[in-house]
Design goal:
The structure is a homodimer.
Chain A (H helix, E strand, L loop, with lengths): L4 H13 L13 H8 L3 H13 L3 E4 L5 E4 L8 H9 L25 H18 L3 H15 L3
Antiparallel strand pairs in A: 1-2
Helix pairs in contact in A: 1-3, 1-4, 2-3, 4-5
The first copy, chain A, binds a DNA duplex through helix 3.
Chain lengths: ~150, ~150
DNA sequence: TCAAAAGTATACTAGTACTATAGACTTTAT
DNA sequence: ATAAAGTCTATAGTACTAGTATACTTTTGA
């Protein structure tokens, strides 16, 4: 039940890109900067951000002073959207996938016990990922920091 | 967020092995029989059941009339136990694993937003898998069949 | 007693996915 | 014009997946 490095890095990068910036500074962040902050290979991150751009979650600006920025407000981008771009369906088994169903080959799908339970698992995961926006993540981070009295 | 074939087949086999049998027939089932019923390569299933046996979830009887049977009552074997033997930790990322924690390399684990959310995901999955026994699965199957009016 | 049924154990393999790395190209600000 | 930045595609090493293969051990019962 693993999140790939691709997914991990992409989610972390998106969370960084959603961080509230001081007003009237253009919220464009460079790959290199994210890579450094999060200790990720910049070249690998390149591919990941490109995929997120092609999926419409990021926009970019080329050339000097360029970089990436969110295509929509952090409130409107969920972790589920990001996850699906980078790691595919949320469901642990294809036959319970809402977004990309496929039969799994069990003798009788309707009464397959595994399918029943894995359906619950899928729903539990999707519930969290699809109802947590980048803004929510930032809010939580801030409240944790406050609680710990840091920064 | 995928369940491997190994995990899938193992869980399916365990569910079969937990099926209520007519009283006083020894509940020993052969690999071949499970493989046929569930459409799984018998040789592959062999390895899987062996792993489950070595983990103490199954017992076996060698020789003619032998086979596998559950080491404990279906009420006492959870899907979480089976899953962990075959597919490893439930957590989507190592730094939120209860059973086999490892740092994941983010700059500050305490305030890592991804970690906070993935912790929730881990708990949601573990909640289901660790609180669903083989007996529960069978009960659900039966109730689904009843509802559908089959068999 | 010995053959057949059944599990045990390990090695091997083809294919695919993962995790990058590399390099050539395009766009843009100054 | 040049350097900074993203774009795009190819490639490589490694690990994992999903099996196959093979030789063995244990047990039963004819």
């Amino acid at each position: 039940m693993r999140l790939s490095k691709r997914g991990e890095y992409g989610l972390r990068a998106m969370i960084v890109l959603a961080e509230p910036v001081d007003k009237n500074s253009m919220p464009v962040v460079q790959i290199k900067e994210i890579a450094q902050r999060e200790q990720i290979s910049a070249k690998f991150l390149e591919q990941i951000l490109l995929a997120l751009k092609n999926a419409g979650l990021l926009h970019s600006k080329m050339g000097v002073g360029g970089g990436y920025y969110l295509a929509r407000s952090p409130r409107e981008i969920t972790l589920g959207q990001i996850f699906r771009v980078l790691d595919g369906p949320v469901a642990p088994i294809k036959c319970v996938s809402q977004m990309s169903y496929e039969p799994c080959g069990c003798p009788d799908e309707q009464t397959c016990g595994l399918r029943l339970v894995m359906g619950d698992v899928r729903n539990a995961i999707a519930d969290i990922l699809d109802n947590t926006s980048l803004a929510d993540v930032n809010k939580r981070q801030i409240s944790v920091r406050k609680k710990l009295g840091i920064k």
